[in-house]
Task: structure prediction
Amino acid sequence: MQTLRQLPKTVWVLGMVSLFTDISSEMIHSVLPLFLVSQLGAAVLTVGLIEGIAEATASVLKVFSGALSDYLGKRKALTVLGYGLSAFVKPLFFFATSPAWVLVARFADRVGKGIRVAPRDALVADTTPDSMRGAAYGLRQSLDTIGAFLGPLAAFALLAVAPENFRLIFALALIPGFLAVSLLVVGIKEPQAKTSKPKTNPLRWEALGLLGSKYWFLLALALLFNLGNSSDAFLLLRAQQNGIAAAFVPLTLVVMNIAYSLSAYPAGVLSDRLGRFGLLVSGFLVYAIAYLGFAFVQHPWQVWGLFALYGLHLGMSQGILLALVADTVPTELRGTAFGFLNLVIGIALLPASLLAGYLWESFGPSTTFIAGSIFAAVAVLGLGVYQYKFRTV
Result:
C-alpha cells in the first residue's frame, strides 16, 4: 500500500525493535504464570500481586521520562535506556527460586518499559505527518504484536521439545532482547525538533493546564476502563482451567496477537480517514463482549475464539487511543501526555489485578470477567459523554 511506503524509516525501525523485544518478553510472560504456580508454588492472588506491583510502581517513571524527553527535546537516549534495562534484567527470570525473585525481575523489566514508552510514542508522532498518524501507530502496534505472537509460539515449541523446562525458555529469550537494543542504537537518529522546547518544567501546574480539559477527560476514561482490565495472566489461567494443556497455553497468546497484528494497521488507517472516536468505542465494546465470553466459557474451542476476539479489541483501541492523544495535546508536551496516559493505565493494573485475584478466589473465575466487562461498559458510556461534550468525530 502507498501509505506503508510513505511511513518514515523511524516508524519502521521502532516497529522492528518492538517486534524483537516482544519476542523476548512474551516468551517469558506466556509461561510465567504457570512457572509461578506449578514450580514456585505461588497462589493465584500472588500472581496478580506481582503483576500489579510491577506495572503500577514502574508506571510512575513513564511520566518523568516523557516530561524529561519534552524538556530536553531528546527522545532517543531515553528510549535506548529503557529497552536496554529490560534486556539486561531478563537473566533474573532464569535464576528465580521464589516468587520474590520474579517480582524483582518483573519490576526491573517494567521500569525499563516505563522509561522508554512515552519518549518512543512521542518519537512516532514527531516523525510522522498528521494525516498518517493513525497508520503510523497502527504499523508499530502491528509489528509489535507480530513479536508478541512469535514469542509464545517459540515458547510452545520449546515446551513441546522440553516439557515444563521454563528456564530454557528464559535463557533463549535473551537473544531477541539484545538484538532489539542493537537495532535501536544503530537504526534511529534523533529528529530535528519541529517546535521549541517548553520554557518551564512540563510537570509544573501551568504546563499541565496546557494539555487541556479534553485530554484530561480522555485520561479519566482510560483509567476507568483499565480498572477492569486485569493482567493477561488471568486469561492464561482461565485457558488452562478450561482444558487447554499447559504446553498449548502459550498458543492462546499467539491467536490473540495474530488478531491484534492483523487489525491494528487497518484500524489506524481507517481512523485517519473516518475519525478515531467510533473505532475506540467499538474496541471497548468488543472487549466487554470478550470478557463476558471468558466468564461463561465451557469448552476449549470457545477459548481460542475468545482470545481472537480479545486481540481484535486491542487492534481497534490501543493505537487509536495513542493517535487520539497526539491529536489532542500541544506538540511540545507529547512526551508528558503519553507519560500520564501510561501512568494511569499502569497504576490501574494494580487494583484491577488485585480485584481480579480476589474475585477469582472468593466467588469464582466468572465473577472476575463479569466485573471487567462492566467496567468496559461504563467506560463506553463515558465516551458518549466525551463525544457530546467535545463534539468528537
